[in-house]
Amino acid sequence: MNTPEWLKPGIYGAVIGAVFVGVVGFSWGGWVTGGTANDRAMAMFRDDVVASMVPVCLDMAQSDPARAEKLETIRAASAFQRRDAVMAAGWATVPGADAPDRDIAQACLAALEL
């Protein structure tokens, strides 16, 4: 098969150009794979759910009759045990859930400003 002389450099140029565009696109262009996009979307979804549940946690804390005692327990706990203390207080349990949520407890703790 006879191919024109100009075809070989044209094919090499197209292949090298495609590789270059792919490298630049994924490095600096902001392109991501489907799996990465899904992971980022799930993380944003989780953050939004936690942010939407903080007012519920604060409302549960305000309406709790044993609020003062529980706040003292939370304040008395060390910095890394405060989240567990909020969970033990029951304020980080989403209505309808069986167990408290650690992320909601952390966000609620930050909103309580102890």
Automatic annotation (TrEMBL):
What does the UniProt keyword field contain? Hydrolase, Membrane, Transmembrane, Transmembrane helix
Any one Gene Ontology molecular-function term assigned to this protein's record? hydrolase activity
Q: Which sequence ranges are marked TM in the entry?
A: 12-34
Does the UniProt entry include the keyword Hydrolase? yes
Its protein name is: Dienelactone hydrolase
Source taxonomy lineage? Bacteria, Pseudomonadati, Pseudomonadota, Alphaproteobacteria, Rhodobacterales
